[in-house]
Amino acid sequence: MKVIRTIKLIGCCLILVMLLPISVALSTPNSEPENPEQVIEKLQSSLLQVMREGDKLGYEGRFKFLEPIIDESHDLNLIIKTILGATYWSQLDKEQQDLIAETFRKLSIATYAGRFNQYEGEQFQIVEQRALPRDQVLVRSRLTKSDGGTVNFDYVLHQTDGRWRIANILFDGVSDLAIKRGEYRAILQRDGFQALIDMIREKIVLTQQN
Fold it and tell me: What's the CA gap between 99 and 39, in Å, rounded?
């Protein structure tokens, strides 16, 4: 009887070993990186979802919901480096670089959480995708509001670590990066690093009022 039980046990183990590669293959997610349009579609579908649940989630809930989405879709480290420029960035020590990068990251997420807080039938639509110089890609999208008005979003993406991520956004043709570049550099030059950090933190607080 012990021999029979041992044979049955060995047989079961062999079956499990044979099935293991199949189950692993079935459970392994598709590792193929998203193309630029897919990155924007995922971001915008998440924005619509958080808008639909805006009141239920509240500001903190919207922030936590969007945090991994923004981290994944935006190259925030590149954006803040571009805003400050190579000269100002190189003048900061490692602690200051880490501080402004994290503070800017929080502002970026907070801005989305504050603005996309209520759903009134808005819809996003991808208009086109085209290549740009320096191996960048432009994805043009349109937001149609409940009153029929529209806002055009132009997303500039580049590849980093094999993934497409947002490096700049233009709202109706106005570059968000260019606006912040002028504002941030002026504060750095006039009032210094701590004043810039304080200004960004104040903006984070203001987003919570939405």
Answer: 27
Torsion angle of C-alpha atoms 26, 29, 30, 32, degrees rounded to 10: -140
Sequence-separated (6 or more) residues with CB below 8 Å from residue 103? 197, 200, 201, 204
* Residue written as token pair 């919207």: 62
Residue 187 CA to residue 157 CA, distance in Å, equals 28
Per-residue pLDDT, 165: 98
| In contact, 197 and 184? CB cutoff 8 Å | no
Q: Which residues is 22 bridged to in the sheet?
A: none
176: number of CA atoms within 13 Å, CB side? Answer: 16
Give Cα separations from 78 to 101, 141, 169 (angstroms): 9, 22, 13
Task: Please tell me the pTM assigned to this model.
Answer: 0.83
Angle between helices 176-191 and 193-207 (to 10 degrees): 130
Beta-ladder partners of 157: 137, 166
Q: How far apart are CA 8 and CA 14, in angstroms?
A: 10
Structure letter (DSSP) for residue 127: E
Q: What is the pLDDT of residue 210?
A: 65
Q: What is the pLDDT of residues 150-206, one digit of tens each?
A: 999 999 999 999 999 999 999 999 999 999 999 999 999 999 999 999 999 999 999
Q: CA 75 to CA 1: how far, in whole Å?
A: 65
The residue ranking higher by pLDDT, 125 or 11, is 125
- Indicate whether 114 pLDDT > 70: yes
* Nearest by Cα to 152 from 176, 178, 136: 176
